[in-house]
Amino acid sequence: MQWEARPCGAEGVHGPIPESPEWFREARRVRFDDHAPWIPTSMLLGSISGREVLEIGVGIGCDHYRLAQQGNTMTGLDLSREHLRLTTLHLQHEGLATTAVHGDAENMPFPDNSFDVVYSCGVLHHTPDFEKALSECSRVLRPGGQFICAVYHRNSICFGLGTMLKNGILKAGFIRHGWARTLAKIEHGAGYDAVPLVRVYSRGQLKSAVGRWLTVESLHATHVGSHRLEVIAKRLGISRTRLERAFGWAGWYLVLHGRKRS
Ligand SMILES: C[S@@+](CC[C@H](N)C(=O)[O-])C[C@H]1O[C@@H](n2cnc3c(N)ncnc32)[C@H](O)[C@@H]1O
Hints:
Radius of gyration: 18 Å
CATH topology: Rossmann fold
Number of strands: 7
CATH architecture: 3-Layer(aba) Sandwich
Distance between the termini: 38 Å
Number of helices: 12
Bound molecules: S-adenosylmethionine
């Protein structure tokens, strides 16, 4: 599997000995300061505390750590045993704990009404049956429970210019490798041989899919995510915040907050 060989979230972490406490700390710095500073606010990391939280697709546990640190009781579900191991170790280094569960978002090994919050960042666009995963998120949430997710945005600068125009058309990826393999290249480090399933969603598609199972409370796009735009903005002295304000509507992630009907 793509993520067994290349742990997700370890890219860009250089210096400390891998898997040491300093390495995980640096991974958090890279994620929250450099790579995805939108996550804490958009994904409500700072405002959830004292709840039973399920995170689907844990990576190396940076968001998991932040949620655990705030006094939430954490459960992590992932298809990758390696990610579960790294997340458990990450939390252990900081004196925190999680229940790591190997399993599939489409068939969760939890009883109905088990969690106050279901959290998932950059994961559900990888699962073959998105609707099934959403029905499972709804099933395991308690009535009134909160659903927070981020998935790839189809109508984004990243997808339009990077994937469709550059990789798909100019580099002839669609002809040479086909649609699925060209989309798989979106994942960091994926070659045309490793084919993680990747889907992209419009606002309308996401809202209507989630709306079948949960009440949609808010939906926004974020993370300009275009390296070129970021470089140009830096040269012009435009801050990241201003860049996000100007182009965030066409950002690379759609963030949805929902709630299970009481
Ligand atoms: C791109 S990584 C994102 C990890 C982390 N949330 C982050 O933002 O760094 C996707 C993760 O989701 C997991 N995953 C993909 N499909 C899944 C599914 N159907 N059920 C559970 N985990 C899944 C993968 O194993 C991987 O750990």
